[in-house]
Fold:
Amino acid sequence: MLNDADGYGGGSDEAAETPSDADALFSKLKGWIKLDYDSKGQTNWRREAREDFDFEAGEQLSEEDKAILKDAKRPIVIFNRIGTTVDSVAGQEVGNRQEVQFLPRTQGVVKKNELLTSAAKWFRQQCDAEDEESDAFRDMVVCGMGWTETRLDYEDNPEGDPKIDRVDPLEMGWDSGARKRNLVDSRRVFHIRRDVPIEEARALCPGDPDNPFEDCDYNATWLGGEKDGEEPKHDDGREYQNDERTGEEDGEDNCVTMVRIQWWERVPAYMVIDPTNPETILTLGADEFKELSAKAKLAGGKLKFTKTTRKVYRQAYLGNVLLEVGDAPAKGHFSFKCMTGKRDRNKNTFFGIVRAMKDPARWSNKWMSQTMHIMNTTAKGGIAAERGAFFDNDAQGESSWAHQDQVTYLKPGALSGQNPKFIAKPVSQFPQGSFELMQYANQSLRDVSGVNVEILGMQQSSGQAAALDLQRKQSALTILQPLFDSLRRYRKEQGRLLLYLIQHYLSDGRLVKIEGPEEAQFVPLMKKDVYDGKTLYDVIVDESPTSANQKEATWAMLQQILPVIGKMLPPATWLALLKYSPLPTSAQKDISDSIEKAGQQPDPEQQKREAELKLENDKAQAKMANDKQQSDAKIQAMERESQAKMKIAAEEAQHDAMLKAFTRPQSAGESGEGGQGAPAPGIDAAAVLMAFMQEMRRDMNTLATAMNTPKRLIRDPQTGEIVGIAPMEAQ
Structure:
C-alpha cells in the first residue's frame, strides 16, 4: 500500500502494488538489506564500533583480561584517557559551529537569500539541531560514522514540527558498495529499529482496515539479533495473541523489529520540447509522455523528444512482510544523512580516532596493574631472625620490634660475632623498564590520535610561550581536519535537504524568526517568496576551524590592527566589529544599543568642542576683516598721495612749458635790438598758445598712461606691511 511519506504529505503517483508485486518488492528489499547488513565489512565494523564505544566509556579490559587479573590476585585498574581525548575533539566542534547560507544562482552581484538562510536557522533552532549534530559528530570521532535524520513530525503539530535527530550508528545500514566520503554515492540506506512496542508498530503502519496486519507481520524475524551472530528473538511465523497477553508478559517479548529502507531507482524519462513553447524542455515520466503523445497525435502534430532516465527516491517499511511503500520524504534526497571519519580502504569501512588508541590504552592499564602488583608483593621492611634470638620470647620480641617507644632485648651475642642471629629483609629493586613502558604507552595515546597536550589543556610547562602553544594547537587541528571536512560536507548535504523541505512543506505562511542587524522579527514564510520553480541555490558553509576558537582567533587578529585604524573608523564599523568579539550575544546587544542611543543624544563634551571651534573661527574671521580694512585704507591713502604727486608734477610741467615758450631765444634775423626774454615784435601770440597746448596734451597723455598702468604693492620683507606702490613689470 501507499503511505504519505512518513507524514510529509503526498504519496506516490504510481498505483498501489498488486500482491504479487508487493511480494517481489519485499523479496528484493529483504535481499538488499541482508546483503549489506551481513556483509563482512559491516559485520566487522559493528563489532569494532561496539568496542570503540566501550573504550570511550571506560570499559577497556575484556572479560578474559579481567578474569586473568582476578585469578592472579592483581588489581583491576582502568585510567580512561581516551574519554578526555574524545571530549577535546568533540569540544572543538562545539566551540566552532558552522552556519549554512543559501546563494541564488542569478546574474550579477550575488547576495545570500536572507529569508531562506534565516528560515533554515529557525528550522535548526526549533529542534535543537546543534546538540543533535554534536552528538553525531562525537559518534564519528569514536567509531567513524555519525548519522542524523531530518524530517517533519506531525504528531504534536498538524502543520509539522521540524526535527533533526541523531541516530545510533549501530542501528544504521548502508549500501555495501558505497565508497565516497559521507556515503554520498550510496544507493540505499536503512534504519533497523529493535524493541519497538507492538502498539507503536500498529500505529506506524496500520495497514488496510479491511485486511489488517497480524502482529507477527510487524516483526522482521529474518534479521539477525542486535549482536553479530545472535539469534532472532522471535521465531518466524510467531503470532501475538493480544487478548491472551497479560501484564507480566508485556515486556521485551512484546516488542518487534522493524526496518525502514530508503533507496533510489532509475525509471524511464523523456525530455520533450514543449509544443506550446519551443524554448522550453519538459522532463516527463512514461505515463505523462504517453498522454502528451496521444494529445499531439490528435492535434496532428509530432513530439520531438529524447529518451533518458531519472532517479526516483522511494521508502518502505518492512517487518515479516512489506508493510508500507511510497515515495521518499524528500525528492532527490535521503532523510538520513551521514558523516564519516577515516577510511579503511581494504575493508571499505570508516573508523574514528579511538581505534588507534585501544592498544596503547590496554597496555597502559595492564602495566599499571603489573606495577601495583609488584609493589604489593615485595618486602617493604622488617627482619629475618633465628628462633630464640630474643631475650624473653619470640612473641614479646616481635611485638616490641614494631613499636618505636619500646626496647627490644636480645640474648647476649645475638648482635655480635660473624653470624648475627637476625638480618634486615632485603628490599627488591623495582624494575625501571616497567615505568618506562607505562610512560611510553601513555605517550602513545597522544601520538596515535594526533591530539597533543596543548589541545587537551594539560601543558604544564610554565616557560612555553603563548605563540608556541597556539602554533602547536593549530598543528594538531591540521591532523584532525579530515574529520571537520566531513562535517562540512555533511552540512552542505543536509542544507540541500533543508532547502527542499522549506520550499515545499514549510512555506505555508507560518511565522519564522528573521534575525537582522537591529532586532529579530517574525515574518510569514510564503512559497512565492522562497520558491519560483526556476531559481537554483548554492549551499555555502563556513570554513572549517583552524584554531581552538575561530571567534577568539578573529578577535585576536583584529586587536593587532585596531590600534592603527581605530581612530579612522566610524561608529557603524565599530558596531559591525562587535559581532566578532568573544562577548556574549546579550552583551553585544546591550553595547550596540548603548552606542546607538548615545549617538542620538547630544554629547556635552562634543558641544563644548564645537563651541570652542566656532569661537576660534569667529576670531580668525574678525582678524582677517580688520587686516583687510587696514590694508584697503593704506592703499587708498597711497593712491591719493600718488595722484596728488602726479597732479603737482603735471602743474610743474605745465608751468615749465609756459615758461619755456615765453623765454625761448629768437632766431637770427628775427630780432633787432631786443635782448633775450622779451618777445620779438611781430610774433603771433595765438601760435605760441597753440604750441603750449600741444605740449601740455602730451604731458597729460603721459600722466594718464602712468595712472592706468597696473601696479603692485610693495611690502616690507620683515613685517609684511605695505610701504609703496610700483608699476607691474612687463612679462
User: Anything to note?
Assistant: The radius of gyration is 52 Å. The CA atoms of residues 44 and 599 lie 66 Å apart. The mean pLDDT is 79.
